[in-house]
What does this fold into?
Amino acid sequence: AEFVNADPDDLVFVQNTTTGVNQVLNSFLFEPGDEWLVSSHAYGACMLAMKHFCERNKIRLNVIEIPFPVEDDQQILKALQDKITDRTKLALIDHVSSATGMVFPIKKIVDFLRENGVCSLVDGAHAPGMVYLDIRHLNPDFYVANCHKWICAPKGSAFMYVKPDWKHFIKPLIISHYNDTDEGGSSHWANQFMWDGTHDFSAYFCVGDTLDYIEKLHPDGWEGVMNSNHKLVWNAGNLIAEKLGFDLPLRENYIGSILTLPMPDGEEGFPKFNETPPLKQKLYEKYQIQVPVFMFPSAPRQWLRISSQLYNNIGQYEYLADCLRQIFKSK
Ligand SMILES: Cc1ncc(COP(=O)(O)O)c(C=O)c1O
It folds into this structure.
């Protein structure tokens, strides 16, 4: 709670961001004919969850077409404004997009939504440990994020924040022991989510120690870790862009520790979920490089996504750039 500056009573552990998003959608109050918004950069599983709940409840789902590359915050707010009507009640927005690595101007977005009477559900899966996160200042309606990404805690550790005004409505997906008791005082709401049947809770218990451990790996603590990862990925992106002769799609202020790089077009209609693009396959089989390659917003527009963590160094990205040059030269 301290790491993300939130009241511990407004936070619960969940196993992953997908669960947290489903948790909110499953309880959110609606009337048939309402409208919900989802960003075109949204993570596939969360986009599908939005579609599912909208179809089931006769809610209209509108996609906010956020341009990529993007020029400035105004372009993003304008895309939002174009889709808001007086029936719009909820918007799912990424803090850091998986597909594009873009860090959204999330405070401006949350404020803009609220001014327009729309609740914000922020998908912050990649944010904690990558970018500075202050939930009290951000003041979203809902914020869901993973601890098993940039905080480096074990898989199966994530959290959901719910603004106190909403806590009364947001119920666990799994109804279990704490639901027929009012034990726990101000912690009662959070307790209901904790005991969702027997499973391995150890990942949750590791989050605090992981935060303390990683903090000690850099003389400037977490701020140093985040800055150093950001600097490395930015330098790496520039190096690859220069060697391959393209421009980076985003300015530095839209980048955390993930950078998506434009590649020559892939195959039309490819890949489907769980299929491996030939470029990714080749990098792995011939050069032993494991790196995400995907189409965005749709095939054949192809991108390759690099990330930086403390264990990476610039030499690894030089190697990637040389391998990409070899691949494209031989085409
Ligand atoms: C933006 C975003 N949202 C949601 C998720 C889903 O996270 P999980 O698989 O932990 O539920 C991811 C995973 O990469 C993501 O990048």
In short: DSSP finds eleven helices and ten strands in the chain. The CA atoms of residues 73 and 105 lie 7 Å apart. Residues 221-244 form the longest helix (24 residues).
